[in-house]
């Protein structure tokens, strides 16, 4: 008896393609679930490398990010606030891993601060002028440190790039994903727009960080109060706050959450102490005209 020939090569190829497609779909479904739980396909070393590369891009783009030159007392003042938070708080995990560099961008029209992976943190002169005490600035810097520590940016990049990254692995076509990421990030800091959950978590950690310092731990809330007071007074969001609120959304529940976190502290902190307004006012007089 003559045996029938096996499955044709065309049908076999179709079957293999279907199996591969099924694997890809399963991987994508799994990735969607993983991303929703805050997973991160990037390593700590990736965060450090991304930060180093992006910092170089920022410093080579003075048209958009004019790093302050001279005025060393102002720059060292900002650095010392950041170092104080990092060295005194037990909640900071990556003090010995991330470079943690703090610098000032000379732009009075922008009230903002931002962080890129690896602990590179930038504060605009517009923010320093806008605030009225040192604790508020420390609260903002603590908030940005929390973004680095909680690795929020590389988590967002995981959500954005993860599918194409895994597909490139499955299909055997793995381009230099980090190079693409660097290019896209260098185009603009739009990638720095934070989710509401990221912002709330960073607020919580800012309060935790400042509890170990000389500052009033609700410094971040002082910042919120200043924003809401100005919005009420002007009846709208002032133009100089638009970039801030586009990258750091401030819904009412975020403010209420910060108040609730402060209520949990025992003994209750005195909101009139630990502000250091006088020395802050002196630093503001040293800003470039």
Number of domains: 1
The proportion of residues in beta strands is under 5%
User: What is the succession of H and E elements?
Assistant: HHHEEEHHHHHHHHH
Please state how the strands of the largest beta sheet are arranged side by side. 1-3-2
* Biggest pleated sheet: 3 strands, mixed
Secondary-structure class: mainly alpha
What's the end-to-end separation, in Å? Answer: 98 Å
Q: Count the E strands.
A: 3
Mean pLDDT: 81
Range of helix content = 55-70%
Please state the overall shape, judged from the principal axes of the Cα atoms.
globular
Low-confidence stretches: 1-5
Rg over C-alpha atoms, rounded to the nearest angstrom: 24 Å
* SS field, number of helical segments: 12
Please give a structural write-up.
This protein has 289 residues and is mainly alpha-helical. The chain has one domain (44-285). The protein has twelve helices and three strands, in the order H-H-H-E-E-E-H-H-H-H-H-H-H-H-H. The protein has a three-stranded mixed β-sheet with strand order 1-3-2. Helix 1 (9-36) packs antiparallel against helix 6, helix 2 (44-59) crosses helix 7 (177-187) and helix 5 crosses helix 8 (196-211).
